[in-house]
Design brief:
890 residues, mainly beta, 22-stranded antiparallel beta barrel, 6-stranded mixed beta sheet, 53% strand
């Protein structure tokens, strides 16, 4: 209750704080100043990087008085009479080139010697971005024959005197966009038309793939990363609001066979092999309610870099992938705020820009509403999660054996970031997050004559402080200090209602992981835009776990370990200029892991070649080590929560994970088409049998390897208001454990050979809708085919399962159809204010998708040997699940 009151007060404080915020932007007031000096000022004060030929800007001097402009508007106004055009790549990389188009004149006088109907006295229309429909201020409109014309106004409209004839051609152009040629006839047939321009590509040597799936998802780092911007994505199938980790799973090669948000697998890697970062802080628990709800408010996440493989040496400690999340920085242009409620939680968030545009404060507060209203969405998630807690038999004719369940679940998450540009060369930022999950239940099962009690308390928090320094226009440094904590505490009781206390069971599982970082990184950019990146990282791991299971006075299992170790890492990387037709990134990371007193070298390589304007070939290879990982502590016939625990590699039972990855890809991007074909291979060693999810009664740690092979394909097409994409993954992940008595090669527990997704998105004004269909192979499972009778160490009767080959059967296909609808109600008086109403439907036709099949020995109370039987516990993902949202933005 105390936490609830604290967050209630914080909600009110932040609502009050948002009323005091003001907007920001880039302001420049200069007279007769060289372009080179202005570019240097923008680089120093706003962290932009300009690429140009010096001879192109020599002797060009401009005067400008701009107040609180965004970078695109500022450059458009700055270069309007310079015969230069620009392109903004990523966040801050700006390319300038000389324009090859004719110079439009100011105003053309009307001719009066034409016959009526053969010429236009006045030319008018508007120019907009074909993606966003936003006006393109100062676009140029001129006639091909005479090279005479004019510019559009700030709202994109144009209207000027004309001598346009029916046999003329009109050219419309704008910096950063492809110019268009129109026959004059279009202006005769449709006065004042709306002209839409598409994004511009600068020749053979540079390919930028924007609009990868939908707005807000594109490619970066030469195609090695996928960049996701949640605020620009729009509505996606089955989501009333964007869930960060569910959205990531629209990318081929990323999926969750269990239908969970955060516990996803990337190209055959286990979920714990994904490095999740927010502002440089490692996240060890990124979800609520057993993986079903992302623990991040998407509206404060500005950018996410997703590496499905081929990440650079600055990233370490994980063997599979990197998900790197960032919130708005000190160069935030304007303040924005929001508050809303859906069927699961209520929230408020804001991004506050100071008036002088050098201070930014970002915050988010979310809280579950299940204690006030148990919505249909929450009930569906609860029913899905409780499948693993109790084996529910079919109801008897008189309905007497139906289990009685009472439960309570609450979560809170909060995120804060403060960033300041303290000087023209220095930037400081601090970030903090806090997450809590509380769960308890009581299950009375008359059929098994049992009462079960579960209590779970899970906390995760962390913070970071970062200092960035621009020593010069080419050399930058960064110091980052990080601390994060994962704290998991679970206890249970299973009481036999009609038996003696010696038959009752008790258990406790406690796990903490503390990680502290000190990172020092440096980047130097050469004049030809080649780059070197190098640094040092110190990491301290402190991992503790205590597992205890008892039956009466007997201990069934007891494990306890407390491990502390340091890792020192040096890394360096050379990256050739992205403007080159052929390029290379090559680097190495060397880890010194003190627990093993051993060095681990991780080389990384990335190559790319632009075959043409539209085709790019790329190759990635890298070696990765992981020193902390998750072990699944199996419950056997003990019913309860089955949550993995984090452990650290040691010199005996838990090895260091070692993964080698290869990736070969081909990207095609032309007009509204995107095709991305990726082949991958991954070899991983250092797995333990407790981490594989198939052994029902493990005794010792068995060491094994994993091998993954596959191909990911994405095909995407965009029309004016419609986007359609299809993704397909064909993969095979196989384990090898030589110490097993049966066949040592078998499929991994999350191996899904085929995963297919088809989705569409329609945007018409303020209305958005999305429809999607997913189809995937069933996951493997092992069949229990017999029971052996034995005795335990105390001489009590014991029944032991007998399994067939590991994971040699597959569950049925998984498939579901999803839809979402969203409408924005905008204020005519205040353009920033809007109300958003949305509704989504997941698994519209209520398909039962099994994600797990477990066998257990059913020994009913008071039964004899002949009453013991093999029973099956099937667990399925969400059925038909609605959700809705009401959100205010200002």
């Amino acid at each position: 209750m105390r936490i609830k009151k604290i967050f209630g007060v914080l909600f009110l404080c932040f609502f009050y704080f948002t009323a005091l915020a003001q907007q920001g932007g880039i302001s420049i007031n200069t007279n007769n100043t060289s372009l080179e000096k202005i570019f240097s000022q923008l680089e120093a004060e706003h962290n932009y990087l300009f690429s140009f030929k010096k001879e192109d800007i020599e002797n060009i001097r401009v005067s400008i008085n701009a107040e609180k402009k965004d970078i695109h508007s500022l450059l458009t106004e700055l270069l309007i009479n310079t015969r230069l055009e620009f392109e903004i790549v990523g966040d801050n990389y700006i390319i300038l080139k000389k324009s090859k188009k004719p110079d439009p004149r100011s105003v053309i006088p009307s001719y009066t010697d034409h016959s009526p109907g053969n010429y236009i006295n006045e030319l008018c229309g508007s120019v907009v971005d074909s993606f966003t429909q936003q006006p393109l201020a100062y676009a140029s409109i001129y006639f091909k024959k005479t090279n005479r014309g004019n510019y559009a106004l700030p709202d994109g409209s144009f209207k000027f005197s004309s001598d346009l004839q029916k046999n003329d051609t009109v050219v419309v152009s704008y910096a950063g966009y492809k110019e268009k040629y129109f026959p004059a006839d279009i202006f005769f047939k449709k006065p004042c038309p709306k002209i839409q321009l598409n994004y511009y590509d600068f020749g053979d040597d540079f390919i930028v793939v924007t609009d990868y799936l939908t707005d807000g998802i594109d490619l970066g780092d030469n195609g090695a990363a996928t960049i996701l911007r949640p605020n620009r994505i729009g509505v996606l199938p089955g989501q009333a609001e964007p869930d960060i980790f569910t959205t990531i799973q629209f990318l081929p090669g990323i999926n969750s066979s269990r239908g969970e948000s955060s516990n996803f697998n990337v190209r055959g890697g286990a979920a714990d092999q994904n490095l999740l970062l927010w502002e440089g802080i490692p996240i060890y628990h990124a979800s609520h309610y057993f993986g079903m709800i992302s623990a991040f408010n998407p509206y404060i996440i500005d950018k996410i870099k997703i590496y499905r493989g081929g990440f650079g040496p600055e990233y370490g400690g994980r063997a599979s992938s990197v998900i790197d999340m960032e919130s708005a920085d000190s160069d935030l242009k304007e303040s924005s705020f929001g508050a809303g409620v859906n069927f699961l939680n209520a929230y408020t968030h804001g991004q506050v820009a100071a008036p002088n545009n050098n201070l930014t404060f970002v915050y988010s507060l979310r809280r579950s509403i299940s204690d006030m209203w148990r919505s249909p969405t929450f009930e569906n998630i609860t029913n899905r999660n409780l499948q693993g807690f109790v084996n529910i038999p079919p109801p008897s004719p008189n309905g007497q054996n139906i289990p009685r369940v009472s439960d309570a679940f609450n979560f809170v998450d909060s995120h804060f970031k403060l960033a300041a540009q303290v000087s023209s060369k220095d930037k400081i930022s601090g970030s903090f997050f806090y997450t809590v999950n509380d769960f308890d239940d009581r299950i009375v099962n008359p059929n098994r004559e049992q009462e079960q009690l579960d209590i779970l308390d899970l906390k995760s928090n962390g913070g970071s402080i970062k200092w960035e320094r621009n020593w010069s226009e080419r050399f930058t440094s960064e110091v980052l200090a990080v601390s994060t904590l994962y704290d998991y505490d679970y206890s249970y009781e299973i009481n036999e209602l009609e038996s003696s206390p010696s038959s009752n069971r008790f258990g406790h599982k406690f796990n903490t992981l503390k990680e502290r970082h000190l990172n020092f990184s440096n980047t130097y950019r050469f004049k030809n835009n080649h780059r070197i990146n190098f640094g040092y990282q110190f990491i301290n791991y402190d991992v503790f776990y205590d597992i205890n299971h008892q039956k009466g006075n007997r201990t069934l299992e007891s494990q306890r370990r407390d491990v502390n170790s340091n890792t020192n890492a040096l890394y360096g990387e050379f990256s050739s200029s992205q403007e080159q037709r052929t390029g290379i990134d090559v680097g190495i990371r060397v880890n010194r892991f003190e627990k093993r007193n051993k060095n681990y070298a991780s080389p990384r390589l990335r190559l790319w070649h632009n075959l043409s304007d539209d085709w790019r070939l790329q190759f990635n290879a890298g070696k990765h080590y992981q020193f902390v990982s998750q072990l699944v502590e199996f419950k056997g016939d003990i019913l309860g929560i089955e949550t993995p625990i984090w452990v650290m590699a040691n010199d005996k039972s838990v090895p260091v994970l070692d993964a080698t990855q290869y990736q070969l890809g081909l990207i095609y991007h032309k007009k509204a088409w995107v095709v991305d074909l990726q082949f991958f291979a991954k070899e991983t060693s250092g797995l333990t049998s407790l981490a594989t999810g198939f052994d029902p009664s493990p005794r010792n740690f068995d060491i094994g390897t994993a091998s993954s092979r596959g191909v990911d394909l994405l095909v995407k097409k965009r029309w004016k208001d419609v986007r359609v994409w299809a993704s397909y993954s064909l993969s095979k992940t196989e384990y090898n454990f030589p110490t097993f008595m049966t066949d040592s090669f078998f499929p991994s527990p999350f191996d899904q050979r085929h995963v297919f997704n088809l989705a569409s998105q329609l945007n018409i004004g303020d209305f958005q809708c999305s429809l999607g269909f997913s189809l995937a192979s069933g996951t493997p499972y092992s069949v229990m085919n017999d029971i052996n009778k034995g005795e335990d160490a105390q001489g009590d009767e014991l029944f032991l399962p007998v399994y067939a080959n590991f994971n040699d059967q597959n569950l049925p296909l998984q498939h579901h159809l999803d839809a979402s609808f969203l409408y924005n109600f905008r204020s005519k008086k205040d353009k920033k204010f809007k109300a958003v109403v949305g509704i989504s439907f997941f698994n519209i036709y209520d398909q039962e998708n099994l994600y797990s099949r477990e066998y257990f020995i059913d020994n009913p109370p008071g039964g004899g040997l002949n009453d013991v039987k093999i029973s099956i516990d099937d667990q399925s993902s969400l059925g038909f699940t609605p959700n809705a949202v009401v959100r205010l933005e200002w």
